[in-house]
Protein backbone atom coordinates (compact mmCIF):
# COMPACT_ATOMS: atom_id res chain seq x y z
CA UNK A 1 0.00 0.00 0.00
CA UNK A 2 1.55 3.32 -1.07
CA UNK A 3 1.44 6.27 1.27
CA UNK A 4 -0.41 9.42 0.33
CA UNK A 5 1.74 12.22 -1.11
CA UNK A 6 2.66 14.88 1.47
CA UNK A 7 0.42 17.97 1.31
CA UNK A 8 3.21 20.45 2.06
CA UNK A 9 6.97 20.81 2.07
CA UNK A 10 7.39 20.53 5.84
CA UNK A 11 5.81 17.08 5.77
CA UNK A 12 7.90 16.07 2.76
CA UNK A 13 11.12 17.05 4.54
CA UNK A 14 10.40 14.47 7.26
CA UNK A 15 10.11 11.59 4.81
CA UNK A 16 12.84 9.38 3.52
CA UNK A 17 13.88 9.89 -0.05
CA UNK A 18 13.02 13.57 0.00
CA UNK A 19 16.05 14.45 -2.14
CA UNK A 20 14.88 12.06 -4.87
CA UNK A 21 11.39 13.56 -5.18
CA UNK A 22 10.12 16.65 -6.95
CA UNK A 23 9.88 18.60 -3.67
CA UNK A 24 13.44 20.03 -3.78
CA UNK A 25 12.71 21.44 -7.24
CA UNK A 26 9.44 22.91 -6.03
CA UNK A 27 11.33 24.50 -3.13
CA UNK A 28 13.84 25.97 -5.57
CA UNK A 29 11.02 27.33 -7.73
CA UNK A 30 9.47 28.95 -4.67
CA UNK A 31 12.77 30.53 -3.63
CA UNK A 32 13.64 31.70 -7.15
CA UNK A 33 10.26 33.40 -7.58
CA UNK A 34 10.81 35.09 -4.21
CA UNK A 35 14.00 36.80 -5.35
CA UNK A 36 12.46 39.51 -7.60
CA UNK A 37 9.70 40.28 -5.10
CA UNK A 38 12.04 40.46 -2.12
CA UNK A 39 14.57 42.40 -4.22
CA UNK A 40 12.12 45.14 -5.13
CA UNK A 41 10.84 45.41 -1.55
CA UNK A 42 14.35 45.48 -0.10
CA UNK A 43 15.38 48.28 -2.45
CA UNK A 44 12.43 50.31 -1.22
CA UNK A 45 13.43 49.73 2.39
CA UNK A 46 17.08 50.51 1.64
CA UNK A 47 16.09 53.97 0.39
CA UNK A 48 15.25 54.72 4.03
CA UNK A 49 17.55 52.30 5.77
CA UNK A 50 20.84 53.17 4.07
CA UNK A 51 20.78 56.92 4.88
CA UNK A 52 19.70 56.15 8.42
CA UNK A 53 22.52 53.67 8.97
CA UNK A 54 25.04 56.05 7.42
CA UNK A 55 23.89 58.93 9.64
CA UNK A 56 23.94 56.81 12.80
CA UNK A 57 27.39 55.46 11.91
CA UNK A 58 28.75 58.98 11.30
CA UNK A 59 27.29 60.17 14.58
CA UNK A 60 28.89 57.29 16.50
CA UNK A 61 32.31 57.52 14.88
CA UNK A 62 32.77 61.24 14.41
CA UNK A 63 30.22 62.75 16.75
CA UNK A 64 28.51 64.60 13.91
CA UNK A 65 24.88 65.58 14.49
CA UNK A 66 22.33 64.18 12.08
CA UNK A 67 21.39 66.90 9.57
CA UNK A 68 17.92 68.34 9.86
CA UNK A 69 17.29 67.69 6.16
CA UNK A 70 18.05 64.01 6.65
CA UNK A 71 15.75 63.84 9.67
CA UNK A 72 12.92 65.38 7.64
CA UNK A 73 13.64 63.04 4.73
CA UNK A 74 13.54 59.99 6.99
CA UNK A 75 10.37 61.16 8.77
CA UNK A 76 8.51 61.89 5.55
CA UNK A 77 9.79 58.69 3.94
CA UNK A 78 8.71 56.62 6.93
CA UNK A 79 5.23 58.13 6.87
CA UNK A 80 4.91 57.50 3.13
CA UNK A 81 6.11 53.91 3.58
CA UNK A 82 3.64 53.21 6.37
CA UNK A 83 0.82 54.88 4.46
CA UNK A 84 1.47 52.93 1.27
CA UNK A 85 2.35 49.58 2.88
CA UNK A 86 -1.29 48.40 3.37
CA UNK A 87 -1.98 49.05 -0.32
CA UNK A 88 1.30 47.58 -1.61
CA UNK A 89 0.74 44.48 0.51
CA UNK A 90 -2.44 43.71 -1.44
CA UNK A 91 -0.46 42.81 -4.56
CA UNK A 92 2.31 41.10 -2.60
CA UNK A 93 -0.20 38.98 -0.71
CA UNK A 94 -2.06 37.99 -3.87
CA UNK A 95 1.18 36.82 -5.48
CA UNK A 96 2.23 35.02 -2.30
CA UNK A 97 -1.05 33.12 -2.07
CA UNK A 98 -0.52 31.91 -5.63
CA UNK A 99 3.16 31.04 -5.11
CA UNK A 100 2.55 29.25 -1.82
CA UNK A 101 0.84 26.42 -3.70
CA UNK A 102 4.28 25.40 -4.98
CA UNK A 103 5.24 24.13 -1.52
CA UNK A 104 1.93 23.91 0.36
CA UNK A 105 -1.26 22.58 -1.18
CA UNK A 106 -3.39 23.41 1.85
CA UNK A 107 -5.80 26.26 1.04
CA UNK A 108 -5.56 29.58 2.82
CA UNK A 109 -8.69 31.34 4.13
CA UNK A 110 -10.18 33.61 1.50
CA UNK A 111 -9.96 37.27 2.48
CA UNK A 112 -12.57 39.55 1.00
CA UNK A 113 -11.75 43.08 -0.10
CA UNK A 114 -13.01 45.41 2.62
CA UNK A 115 -12.33 48.68 0.91
CA UNK A 116 -9.48 51.13 1.28
CA UNK A 117 -10.53 51.96 4.84
CA UNK A 118 -10.36 48.29 5.75
CA UNK A 119 -6.72 48.18 4.69
CA UNK A 120 -5.89 50.51 7.57
CA UNK A 121 -8.31 49.30 10.26
CA UNK A 122 -8.29 45.48 10.22
CA UNK A 123 -5.82 43.11 11.84
CA UNK A 124 -5.74 41.01 8.66
CA UNK A 125 -4.44 43.90 6.59
CA UNK A 126 -1.65 44.69 9.05
CA UNK A 127 -0.62 41.03 9.17
CA UNK A 128 -0.24 41.25 5.40
CA UNK A 129 1.88 44.37 5.91
CA UNK A 130 4.05 42.45 8.37
CA UNK A 131 4.49 39.72 5.76
CA UNK A 132 5.52 42.32 3.18
CA UNK A 133 8.16 43.78 5.52
CA UNK A 134 9.33 40.23 6.29
CA UNK A 135 9.88 39.62 2.57
CA UNK A 136 11.73 42.90 2.14
CA UNK A 137 14.01 42.68 5.20
CA UNK A 138 14.54 39.28 6.82
CA UNK A 139 14.23 37.12 3.70
CA UNK A 140 17.00 38.92 1.72
CA UNK A 141 19.35 38.61 4.71
CA UNK A 142 18.65 34.89 4.97
CA UNK A 143 19.13 34.39 1.25
CA UNK A 144 22.40 36.34 1.37
CA UNK A 145 23.82 34.21 4.18
CA UNK A 146 22.86 31.00 2.41
CA UNK A 147 24.33 32.26 -0.87
CA UNK A 148 27.60 33.01 0.91
CA UNK A 149 27.74 29.47 2.34
CA UNK A 150 26.90 28.04 -1.08
CA UNK A 151 29.69 30.10 -2.67
CA UNK A 152 32.15 28.72 -0.12
CA UNK A 153 31.06 25.18 -0.94
CA UNK A 154 31.49 25.83 -4.68
CA UNK A 155 34.97 27.11 -3.89
CA UNK A 156 35.73 23.82 -2.16
CA UNK A 157 34.49 21.82 -5.14
CA UNK A 158 36.46 23.92 -7.65
CA UNK A 159 39.61 24.22 -5.54
CA UNK A 160 41.67 21.60 -7.50
CA UNK A 161 41.16 23.53 -10.73
CA UNK A 162 41.72 26.90 -9.07
CA UNK A 163 44.96 25.70 -7.50
CA UNK A 164 46.34 24.80 -10.88
CA UNK A 165 46.05 28.39 -12.10
CA UNK A 166 47.60 30.21 -9.14
CA UNK A 167 50.35 29.84 -6.59
CA UNK A 168 48.00 29.72 -3.57
CA UNK A 169 44.26 29.41 -3.19
CA UNK A 170 42.44 30.28 0.05
CA UNK A 171 40.03 27.46 0.90
CA UNK A 172 37.82 28.54 3.82
CA UNK A 173 40.28 28.26 6.72
CA UNK A 174 43.57 27.44 4.99
CA UNK A 175 45.50 27.78 1.73
CA UNK A 176 46.47 25.15 -0.82
CA UNK A 177 49.34 25.26 -3.29
CA UNK A 178 48.67 22.29 -5.55
CA UNK A 179 45.62 20.49 -6.95
CA UNK A 180 46.56 17.40 -4.97
CA UNK A 181 46.32 19.30 -1.69
CA UNK A 182 42.91 20.60 -2.70
CA UNK A 183 41.38 17.17 -3.49
CA UNK A 184 40.23 16.45 0.11
CA UNK A 185 38.50 19.82 0.24
CA UNK A 186 36.83 19.14 -3.09
CA UNK A 187 35.54 15.79 -1.79
CA UNK A 188 34.17 17.55 1.30
CA UNK A 189 32.46 20.11 -0.95
CA UNK A 190 30.83 17.35 -3.02
CA UNK A 191 29.61 15.61 0.14
CA UNK A 192 28.06 18.88 1.32
CA UNK A 193 26.02 19.29 -1.90
CA UNK A 194 23.10 17.11 -0.61
CA UNK A 195 23.16 19.09 2.63
CA UNK A 196 22.75 22.35 0.74
CA UNK A 197 20.10 20.76 -1.48
CA UNK A 198 18.20 19.79 1.66
CA UNK A 199 18.90 23.22 3.17
CA UNK A 200 17.10 24.90 0.29
CA UNK A 201 13.99 22.93 1.29
CA UNK A 202 14.35 23.97 4.92
CA UNK A 203 14.59 27.66 3.98
CA UNK A 204 11.56 27.38 1.71
CA UNK A 205 9.62 25.53 4.42
CA UNK A 206 10.41 28.20 7.03
CA UNK A 207 9.44 30.98 4.65
CA UNK A 208 6.20 29.21 3.72
CA UNK A 209 5.39 28.57 7.40
CA UNK A 210 5.80 32.26 8.23
CA UNK A 211 3.63 33.20 5.24
CA UNK A 212 0.91 30.76 6.31
CA UNK A 213 1.10 31.97 9.90
CA UNK A 214 0.69 35.61 8.88
CA UNK A 215 -1.74 35.18 6.00
CA UNK A 216 -3.76 32.20 7.19
CA UNK A 217 -4.63 33.21 10.72
CA UNK A 218 -8.28 33.85 11.68
CA UNK A 219 -9.56 37.20 10.55
CA UNK A 220 -10.36 38.84 13.87
CA UNK A 221 -10.37 37.80 17.50
CA UNK A 222 -13.55 39.80 18.05
CA UNK A 223 -15.29 37.88 15.28
CA UNK A 224 -14.20 34.57 16.79
CA UNK A 225 -15.43 35.61 20.22
CA UNK A 226 -18.77 36.56 18.70
CA UNK A 227 -18.97 33.15 17.00
CA UNK A 228 -18.33 31.49 20.36
CA UNK A 229 -20.98 33.59 22.06
CA UNK A 230 -23.39 32.88 19.22
CA UNK A 231 -22.79 29.14 19.54
CA UNK A 232 -23.42 29.36 23.28
CA UNK A 233 -26.64 31.28 22.71
CA UNK A 234 -27.78 28.69 20.19
CA UNK A 235 -27.02 25.85 22.61
CA UNK A 236 -28.91 27.61 25.40
CA UNK A 237 -31.83 28.36 23.08
CA UNK A 238 -31.88 24.72 21.99
CA UNK A 239 -31.92 23.57 25.61
CA UNK A 240 -34.78 25.93 26.47
CA UNK A 241 -36.75 24.78 23.44
CA UNK A 242 -36.09 21.15 24.29
CA UNK A 243 -37.42 21.66 27.82
CA UNK A 244 -40.51 23.40 26.43
CA UNK A 245 -41.20 20.52 24.04
CA UNK A 246 -40.69 18.06 26.89
CA UNK A 247 -43.24 19.88 29.05
CA UNK A 248 -45.74 20.16 26.20
CA UNK A 249 -45.48 16.48 25.38
CA UNK A 250 -45.53 15.36 28.99
CA UNK A 251 -48.30 17.68 30.18
CA UNK A 252 -50.36 18.00 27.01
CA UNK A 253 -50.16 15.21 24.44
CA UNK A 254 -49.31 12.34 26.76
CA UNK A 255 -52.33 12.69 29.12
CA UNK A 256 -54.70 13.02 26.16
CA UNK A 257 -53.24 9.96 24.51
CA UNK A 258 -53.53 8.07 27.79
CA UNK A 259 -57.21 9.06 28.01
CA UNK A 260 -57.77 7.96 24.41
CA UNK A 261 -56.21 4.57 25.13
CA UNK A 262 -58.48 4.10 28.17
CA UNK A 263 -61.57 5.08 26.20
CA UNK A 264 -60.72 2.59 23.45
CA UNK A 265 -60.18 -0.10 26.09
CA UNK A 266 -63.59 0.61 27.64
CA UNK A 267 -65.19 0.61 24.19
CA UNK A 268 -63.73 -2.86 23.50
CA UNK A 269 -65.40 -4.14 26.66
CA UNK A 270 -68.80 -2.85 25.51
CA UNK A 271 -68.57 -4.21 21.96
CA UNK A 272 -69.40 -7.94 21.49
CA UNK A 273 -66.50 -10.01 20.17
CA UNK A 274 -68.54 -11.15 17.15
CA UNK A 275 -69.41 -7.57 16.18
CA UNK A 276 -67.99 -6.24 12.85
CA UNK A 277 -66.54 -3.28 14.78
CA UNK A 278 -64.66 -5.45 17.28
CA UNK A 279 -61.59 -6.16 15.16
CA UNK A 280 -61.01 -2.53 13.94
CA UNK A 281 -61.54 -1.34 17.52
CA UNK A 282 -58.98 -3.83 18.84
CA UNK A 283 -56.46 -2.73 16.20
CA UNK A 284 -57.03 0.92 17.10
CA UNK A 285 -56.56 0.11 20.80
CA UNK A 286 -53.25 -1.70 20.14
CA UNK A 287 -52.00 1.14 17.93
CA UNK A 288 -52.85 3.65 20.66
CA UNK A 289 -50.84 1.61 23.20
CA UNK A 290 -47.90 1.39 20.77
CA UNK A 291 -48.10 5.14 20.24
CA UNK A 292 -47.97 5.60 24.01
CA UNK A 293 -44.77 3.57 24.12
CA UNK A 294 -43.28 5.55 21.22
CA UNK A 295 -44.16 8.84 22.87
CA UNK A 296 -42.52 7.75 26.14
CA UNK A 297 -39.36 6.89 24.18
CA UNK A 298 -39.43 10.32 22.51
CA UNK A 299 -39.79 12.06 25.86
CA UNK A 300 -37.00 9.88 27.25
CA UNK A 301 -34.77 10.89 24.32
CA UNK A 302 -35.45 14.56 24.94
CA UNK A 303 -34.35 14.32 28.58
CA UNK A 304 -33.92 10.94 30.24
CA UNK A 305 -36.15 10.61 33.28
CA UNK A 306 -33.31 9.05 35.23
CA UNK A 307 -31.30 12.23 34.77
CA UNK A 308 -34.13 14.25 36.30
CA UNK A 309 -34.77 11.82 39.16
CA UNK A 310 -31.25 10.63 40.03
CA UNK A 311 -28.94 13.39 38.82
CA UNK A 312 -25.94 12.89 36.57
CA UNK A 313 -24.04 10.46 38.80
CA UNK A 314 -27.09 8.28 39.43
CA UNK A 315 -28.13 8.27 35.77
CA UNK A 316 -24.61 7.26 34.71
CA UNK A 317 -24.61 4.42 37.26
CA UNK A 318 -27.95 3.28 35.84
CA UNK A 319 -26.37 3.21 32.37
CA UNK A 320 -23.47 1.19 33.76
CA UNK A 321 -25.85 -1.35 35.30
CA UNK A 322 -27.53 -1.84 31.92
CA UNK A 323 -24.23 -2.28 30.00
CA UNK A 324 -23.30 -5.66 28.54
CA UNK A 325 -19.87 -5.64 30.26
CA UNK A 326 -18.85 -4.68 33.81
CA UNK A 327 -18.58 -0.89 34.11
CA UNK A 328 -17.11 0.85 37.13
CA UNK A 329 -18.30 4.39 37.88
CA UNK A 330 -16.35 6.91 39.97
CA UNK A 331 -18.22 10.17 40.55
CA UNK A 332 -16.95 13.23 42.40
CA UNK A 333 -19.48 15.95 41.69
CA UNK A 334 -19.69 18.60 44.36
CA UNK A 335 -22.58 20.81 43.26
CA UNK A 336 -25.42 21.01 40.77
CA UNK A 337 -24.58 21.45 37.11
CA UNK A 338 -26.24 23.46 34.34
CA UNK A 339 -28.80 21.46 32.35
CA UNK A 340 -26.78 21.72 29.13
CA UNK A 341 -23.68 20.30 30.83
CA UNK A 342 -25.62 17.48 32.49
CA UNK A 343 -27.25 16.48 29.22
CA UNK A 344 -23.96 16.65 27.33
CA UNK A 345 -22.12 14.56 29.90
CA UNK A 346 -24.94 12.01 30.02
CA UNK A 347 -24.96 11.50 26.25
CA UNK A 348 -21.15 11.39 26.16
CA UNK A 349 -21.20 8.44 28.53
CA UNK A 350 -24.11 6.85 26.66
CA UNK A 351 -22.40 7.12 23.26
CA UNK A 352 -19.03 5.94 24.59
CA UNK A 353 -20.50 2.90 26.34
CA UNK A 354 -22.44 2.13 23.18
CA UNK A 355 -19.23 2.27 21.15
CA UNK A 356 -17.52 -0.01 23.67
CA UNK A 357 -20.30 -2.58 23.34
CA UNK A 358 -20.37 -2.42 19.53
CA UNK A 359 -16.73 -2.08 18.52
CA UNK A 360 -14.19 -2.38 21.33
CA UNK A 361 -14.45 -6.11 22.18
CA UNK A 362 -13.64 -5.05 25.75
CA UNK A 363 -14.06 -7.05 28.96
CA UNK A 364 -14.52 -4.07 31.25
CA UNK A 365 -14.90 -0.29 31.20
CA UNK A 366 -14.58 2.60 33.60
CA UNK A 367 -16.34 5.96 33.84
CA UNK A 368 -14.99 8.88 35.86
CA UNK A 369 -16.92 12.08 36.58
CA UNK A 370 -14.78 14.74 38.24
CA UNK A 371 -15.73 18.31 39.02
CA UNK A 372 -12.63 20.43 39.53
CA UNK A 373 -13.32 24.11 40.00
CA UNK A 374 -15.30 25.41 37.04
CA UNK A 375 -14.77 22.31 34.91
CA UNK A 376 -16.47 18.93 34.66
CA UNK A 377 -14.22 16.15 33.35
CA UNK A 378 -15.78 13.00 31.94
CA UNK A 379 -13.47 10.07 31.21
CA UNK A 380 -14.57 6.76 29.69
CA UNK A 381 -11.92 4.07 29.28
CA UNK A 382 -11.96 0.41 28.24
CA UNK A 383 -9.51 -2.45 27.76
CA UNK A 384 -10.61 -3.21 24.20
CA UNK A 385 -8.72 -3.44 20.93
CA UNK A 386 -8.41 0.34 20.41
CA UNK A 387 -8.03 1.90 16.99
CA UNK A 388 -11.02 4.25 17.33
CA UNK A 389 -10.97 6.74 14.47
CA UNK A 390 -13.50 9.60 14.07
CA UNK A 391 -12.90 9.49 10.30
CA UNK A 392 -14.47 6.01 10.05
CA UNK A 393 -17.84 6.94 11.45
CA UNK A 394 -20.12 9.74 12.59
CA UNK A 395 -20.49 8.70 16.25
CA UNK A 396 -17.35 10.34 17.61
CA UNK A 397 -17.69 13.26 15.21
CA UNK A 398 -21.24 13.92 16.38
CA UNK A 399 -20.11 13.57 19.97
CA UNK A 400 -17.34 16.13 19.39
CA UNK A 401 -19.90 18.50 17.84
CA UNK A 402 -22.19 18.10 20.84
CA UNK A 403 -19.31 18.81 23.22
CA UNK A 404 -18.19 21.83 21.17
CA UNK A 405 -21.72 23.25 21.31
CA UNK A 406 -21.36 23.29 25.11
CA UNK A 407 -17.99 25.11 24.81
CA UNK A 408 -16.10 21.97 25.80
CA UNK A 409 -13.50 19.83 24.12
CA UNK A 410 -13.09 16.12 23.45
CA UNK A 411 -9.74 14.29 23.61
CA UNK A 412 -9.28 10.76 22.28
CA UNK A 413 -6.45 8.28 22.87
CA UNK A 414 -7.00 4.94 21.16
CA UNK A 415 -3.82 3.29 19.86
CA UNK A 416 -4.15 0.00 17.96
CA UNK A 417 -4.32 -2.77 20.52
CA UNK A 418 -5.88 -0.49 23.14
CA UNK A 419 -6.69 0.74 25.62
CA UNK A 420 -9.08 3.52 24.62
CA UNK A 421 -9.65 6.68 26.65
CA UNK A 422 -12.20 9.38 25.82
CA UNK A 423 -11.82 12.53 27.89
CA UNK A 424 -14.33 15.36 27.71
CA UNK A 425 -13.81 18.69 29.46
CA UNK A 426 -16.92 20.83 29.97
CA UNK A 427 -17.20 24.29 31.59
CA UNK A 428 -19.68 24.07 34.44
CA UNK A 429 -19.92 27.66 35.68
CA UNK A 430 -23.42 28.24 37.03
Automatic annotation (TrEMBL):
<keyword id="KW-0902">Two-component regulatory system</keyword>
<keyword id="KW-0808">Transferase</keyword>
<feature type="transmembrane region" description="Helical">
    <location>
        <begin position="27"/>
        <end position="56"/>
    </location>
</feature>
<dbReference type="Pfam" id="PF13796">
    <property type="entry name" value="Sensor"/>
</dbReference>
<feature type="transmembrane region" description="Helical">
    <location>
        <begin position="185"/>
        <end position="215"/>
    </location>
</feature>
<dbReference type="InterPro" id="IPR025828">
    <property type="entry name" value="Put_sensor_dom"/>
</dbReference>
<keyword id="KW-0067">ATP-binding</keyword>
<keyword id="KW-0812">Transmembrane</keyword>
<feature type="domain" description="Histidine kinase/HSP90-like ATPase">
    <location>
        <begin position="345"/>
        <end position="428"/>
    </location>
</feature>
<keyword id="KW-1133">Transmembrane helix</keyword>
<keyword id="KW-0418">Kinase</keyword>
<feature type="transmembrane region" description="Helical">
    <location>
        <begin position="143"/>
        <end position="164"/>
    </location>
</feature>
<keyword id="KW-0547">Nucleotide-binding</keyword>
<dbReference type="Pfam" id="PF02518">
    <property type="entry name" value="HATPase_c"/>
</dbReference>
<keyword id="KW-0472">Membrane</keyword>
<keyword id="KW-0597">Phosphoprotein</keyword>
<dbReference type="GO" id="GO:0005524">
    <property type="term" value="F:ATP binding"/>
</dbReference>
<feature type="transmembrane region" description="Helical">
    <location>
        <begin position="68"/>
        <end position="95"/>
    </location>
</feature>
<dbReference type="GO" id="GO:0016020">
    <property type="term" value="C:membrane"/>
</dbReference>
<feature type="domain" description="Putative sensor">
    <location>
        <begin position="69"/>
        <end position="215"/>
    </location>
</feature>
<dbReference type="InterPro" id="IPR050482">
    <property type="entry name" value="Sensor_HK_TwoCompSys"/>
</dbReference>
<feature type="domain" description="Signal transduction histidine kinase subgroup 3 dimerisation and phosphoacceptor">
    <location>
        <begin position="241"/>
        <end position="307"/>
    </location>
</feature>
<dbReference type="InterPro" id="IPR011712">
    <property type="entry name" value="Sig_transdc_His_kin_sub3_dim/P"/>
</dbReference>
<dbReference type="InterPro" id="IPR036890">
    <property type="entry name" value="HATPase_C_sf"/>
</dbReference>
<dbReference type="GO" id="GO:0000155">
    <property type="term" value="F:phosphorelay sensor kinase activity"/>
</dbReference>
<dbReference type="Pfam" id="PF07730">
    <property type="entry name" value="HisKA_3"/>
</dbReference>
<dbReference type="GO" id="GO:0046983">
    <property type="term" value="F:protein dimerization activity"/>
</dbReference>
<protein>
    <recommendedName>
        <fullName>histidine kinase</fullName>
        <ecNumber>2.7.13.3</ecNumber>
    </recommendedName>
</protein>
<dbReference type="InterPro" id="IPR003594">
    <property type="entry name" value="HATPase_dom"/>
</dbReference>
Amino acid sequence: MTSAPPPHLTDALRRRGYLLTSWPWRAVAYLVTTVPIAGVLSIGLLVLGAPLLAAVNAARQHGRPIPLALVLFLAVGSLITLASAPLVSVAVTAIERWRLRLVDARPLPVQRWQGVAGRYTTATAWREVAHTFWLGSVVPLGYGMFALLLLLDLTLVASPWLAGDADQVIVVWTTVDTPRQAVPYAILGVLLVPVFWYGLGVIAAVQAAVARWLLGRPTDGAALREVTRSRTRLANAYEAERRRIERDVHDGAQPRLTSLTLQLGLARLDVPSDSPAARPLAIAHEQAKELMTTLRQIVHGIRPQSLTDLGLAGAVREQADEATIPVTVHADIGRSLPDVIEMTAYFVVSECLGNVARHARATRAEVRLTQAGDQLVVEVSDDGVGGADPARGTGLTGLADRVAAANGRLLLASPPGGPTLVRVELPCRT
